[in-house]
Structure to design on (348 residues):
């Protein structure tokens, strides 16, 4: 009996080989899972990475782990680093310019992985940084200075400035700050200013719509017909437009010679669009999401159109743009960038 239990136990443990996973990040600057960095040092390095994000909009992240096998992985650090980089989506999704420094403490291996925009162009400079700035310090178990010197050197390679020295290019700094402010204000500016901007336009439109019309035949002041009255002067499509409130029509008539002019006023906002067949603004569209967009891929939607005037029906398939990730200066999540495996590694 004991033997059967033992056999069962051995059988179970051998089955439960861990599937490969990746750690989840707790923030986008420093994830010191291996506890290599004392708090004050970690904070100083974080400030440099944060400054790089604010000044140059580049996502550079530092990760330390104990062992790759903690995540069910056995092998070289390159595939693991590329996998983790893409799992987190480091860097801007359009530019793919993110950078990750991964240190696996007890494997004694590290890697600087770069976004796919660089291809292999950064392999040599990153190798130099690994060999000159990082590994000699790691060999003396000096992880703090190794990581920090590496961070400084990578930032210098990417931007031409060391941390804290971006001031050298003041114009760029002002532009970045201005752009961030505008992005932040964007929605609110529209909400606050839109009514103010359209008020004078609306006033002018009302005035010009109501001002007296003079008959071109005899100079008599024309009369505007009431709604309902004017339907006999309108086409079927125009009447449909009026019913849908997508276009409003005024009919002016000369009391003397019965000369008639018809004026069209498009609604400011209408959910009806123009028909490709009859041309009237009497088309309603119904959207169906075929595939939702994510931060890493575009989606597809189908729009079914139906003209309420001529009864024409058609549909189009449209691409839904990738979801934009949170704003550039946010530390909440990565931008959805990817790496094609560029960078450099080392062991000590
Ligand atoms: Zn007239
Ligand atoms: Zn139509």
């Amino acid at each position: 009996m004991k033997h059967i239990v033992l056999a069962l136990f051995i059988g179970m443990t051998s089955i439960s080989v861990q599937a490969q996973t990746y750690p989840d990040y707790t923030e986008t600057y420093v994830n010191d899972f291996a506890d290599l960095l004392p708090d004050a040092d970690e904070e100083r390095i974080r400030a440099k990475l944060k400054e790089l994000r604010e000044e140059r909009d580049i996502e550079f992240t530092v990760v330390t782990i104990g062992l790759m096998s903690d995540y069910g992985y056995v092998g070289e650090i390159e595939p693991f680093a590329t996998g983790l980089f893409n799992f987190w989506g480091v860097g801007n999704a359009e530019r793919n310019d993110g950078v990750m420094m991964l240190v696996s403490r007890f494997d004694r291996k590290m890697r600087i992985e770069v976004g796919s925009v660089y291809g292999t162009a950064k392999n040599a400079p990153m190798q130099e940084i690994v060999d000159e700035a990082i590994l000699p310090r790691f060999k003396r178990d000096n992880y703090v200075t190794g990581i920090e010197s590496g961070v400084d050197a990578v930032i210098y390679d990417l931007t031409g400035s060391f941390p804290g020295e971006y001031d050298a290019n003041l114009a760029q700094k002002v532009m970045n700050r201005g752009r961030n402010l505008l992005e932040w204000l964007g929605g609110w500016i529209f909400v606050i200013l839109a009514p103010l901007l359209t008020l004078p336009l609306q006033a002018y439109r009302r005035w010009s719509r109501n001002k007296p019309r003079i008959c071109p035949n005899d100079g008599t002041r024309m009369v505007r017909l009431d709604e309902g009255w004017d339907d006999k002067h309108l086409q079927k499509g125009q009447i449909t437009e009026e019913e849908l409130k997508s276009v409003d029509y005024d009919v002016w008539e000369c009391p003397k010679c019965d000369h008639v002019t018809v004026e069209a006023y498009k609604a400011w906002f209408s959910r009806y669009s123009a028909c490709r067949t009859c041309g009237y603004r009497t088309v309603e569209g119904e959207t169906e999401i075929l595939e939702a967009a994510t931060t890493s891929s575009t989606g597809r939607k189908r729009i079914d159109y139906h003209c309420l005037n001529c009864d024409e029906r058609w549909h189009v398939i449209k691409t839904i743009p990738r979801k934009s990730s949170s704003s550039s200066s946010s530390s909440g999540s990565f931008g959805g960038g990817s790496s094609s495996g560029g960078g450099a590694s080392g062991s000590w």
Q: What stands out?
A: The two ends are 50 Å apart (CA to CA). Confidence is low (pLDDT under 50) at residues 6-16, 326-330. The chain is about 35% helix and 20% strand. The chain has three domains: 2-176, 213-270, 272-319.
